[in-house]
Design a protein that fits this description.
Order of helices and strands: HEHHEHHEHEEHHEEHHEHHHHEHEEEHE
Helix content: 40-55%
Strand content: 15-25%
Oligomer: single chain
Structural class: alpha/beta
Largest sheet: 11 strands, mixed
Number of strands: 13
Number of helices: 16
Radius of gyration: 21 Å
Distance between the termini: 45 Å
């Protein structure tokens, strides 16, 4: 039975503690849109997406009004476009422009899937798509791109890592008049999940149903508020239990929204991603959660231990609340999207090296980090390789979303607006890794890959 105090608690979470459903994301398979003629393929894509997703935004807004639950983003994820490009050939940017038209037509915030999966090598269409990513992102506003360059089973494709360092830099250069937004829409993965509702890394995996609804919940502010009420001498294991109970409540809300959206759209319910995704709003911050645990500032010694406990407790609480947990599910640490992370980076306590250590225990990786505009492509590739290695060896998802701030140096700032926020330019170790990156080839899969 639901009592009045529980109802009031939920209302307070929404009104005062930034509880929301961060996204409902419709995953759409485009495998049946493949065609040897790229123009025919694009026509099929436009017809399918605009037909299947025509009511996505309206139904999301209806659920918001009926239940009083903010649904911040309505998004679409599609089959990795490199697979269709392998059939059609031609200019990959045509696909990006088609996706942009689809996003504008149905009114979604973002559409993800201008993607390639190259962890073990390039197949038809992969390299051409990666080469086209900077132009595709520069010519669109709603399209997001991702590339999976490694996995625990396959190792790391270092030829792709080298190429992506160049493309990140190029994407920033082509959009330098828009605060380098192109690089902010590009994620480089290791062990990419195929049911991720969060941008910029969302795509619809080939093992998924033809169409599904995935939900991404959030609630750093709710977790922080719960910890703020706890005594300062509460033991860490008791704090973990408190986080688990809070994550349970957050996930139940996401489960409810996903179930309702699934029924109204007549589309199967995929997963709830219970990641704690921060926003630039003061209070809606993963860094502030860590500080409530007893750190003076996020980035202090002890930060990685606190983040590890937070990530684990969120997962444990979430899996009790839903049998459909998937995606990334944990704590995000995007610097530009988290007010506490921004402050810690500006004060010099939070460095890229400390962030890298934190990525070993959290969801995703070096996310929305702004680096000096003169950072070389080889150093960006080195950053990507290090993150991929953490993911590969630990059998977890890691990623890099780095934004070279063209024309800016350490201490300057880029502002993206909206949920992407703004970020200080962080110092990058200038020591060269170019010889290693230019070797190419593949870092072999670790022993952990042999699980059969």
């Amino acid at each position: 039975m639901i009592n009045v105090s529980e109802i009031m608690e939920t209302i307070k979470m929404i009104d005062e503690e930034y509880l929301d459903v961060r996204t409902i994301t419709m995953g759409i398979s485009l495998l049946d849109c493949a065609d040897a003629d790229i123009d025919q393929s694009c026509a099929k894509i436009y017809e399918k997406i605009t037909r299947v997703a025509k009511d996505l935004v309206k139904i999301g807004e209806d659920i918001e009004k009926e239940y009083g639950i903010p649904i911040i983003n309505k998004r679409i994820a599609v089959t990795p476009i490199a697979m269709l490009l392998g059939v059609s050939g031609g200019d990959p940017v045509k696909y990006a422009l088609t996706l942009e038209r689809c996003a504008q037509s149905v009114g979604v915030n973002f559409i993800g899937g201008f993607s390639a999966l190259v962890q073990k090598g390039f197949s038809a269409g992969d390299e051409a798509l990666i080469q086209a990513i900077p132009q595709a992102l520069a010519q669109t506003d709603h399209v997001c791109a991702s590339v999976n360059v490694g996995s625990t089973k396959a190792g790391i494709n270092m030829d792709a890592v080298r190429l992506l360092g160049e493309k990140v830099k190029e994407a920033a250069e082509l959009t330098k008049d828009r605060d380098c937004i192109g690089a902010a829409k590009l994620v480089v993965f290791c062990n990419a999940p195929e049911d991720n509702p969060f941008m910029a890394g969302a795509f619809h995996g080939v093992g998924e149903a033809d169409c599904v609804i995935n939900v991404g919940v959030s609630g750093p502010g709710v977790v922080r508020a719960a910890l703020a009420k706890a005594p300062k001498d509460m033991a860490m294991n008791e704090l973990a239990d408190l986080i688990k109970r809070t994550a349970f409540k957050i996930t139940r809300m996401g489960q409810m929204v996903g179930t309702i959206a699934s029924k109204r759209l007549n589309v199967p319910f995929g997963i709830v991603d219970l990641s704690l995704a921060p926003t630039p709003a003061i209070g809606d911050s993963v860094a502030y959660i860590l500080e409530e645990m007893g750190l003076e500032t996020c980035g202090a010694y002890g930060t990685t231990a606190c983040l590890a406990m937070l990530n684990d407790a969120v997962k444990k609480g979430g899996v009790m609340a839903s049998s459909n947990v998937g995606g990334l599910s944990g704590a995000f640490i995007p610097v530009s999207e988290d007010a506490g992370m921004i402050h810690a980076a500006q004060s010099g306590v939070l460095t890229l090296e400390k962030l890298e250590a934190m990525t070993a225990v959290c969801s995703v990786g070096l996310d929305m980090v702004v680096i000096p505009g003169d950072t070389s492509a080889e150093i960006i590739s080195g950053i990507i390789a290090d993150e991929a290695a953490i993911g590969m060896v630990n059998s977890k998802t890691t990623a890099v979303r780095a934004i070279p701030a063209i024309g800016k140096q350490v201490g300057d700032e880029l502002s993206f607006g909206g949920l992407l926020g703004s970020g200080p330019v962080m110092r990058v170790n200038p020591a060269s890794c170019s010889v290693m990156i230019k070797r190419g080839g593949r870092i072999p899969a670790p022993l952990q890959a042999l699980k059969n």
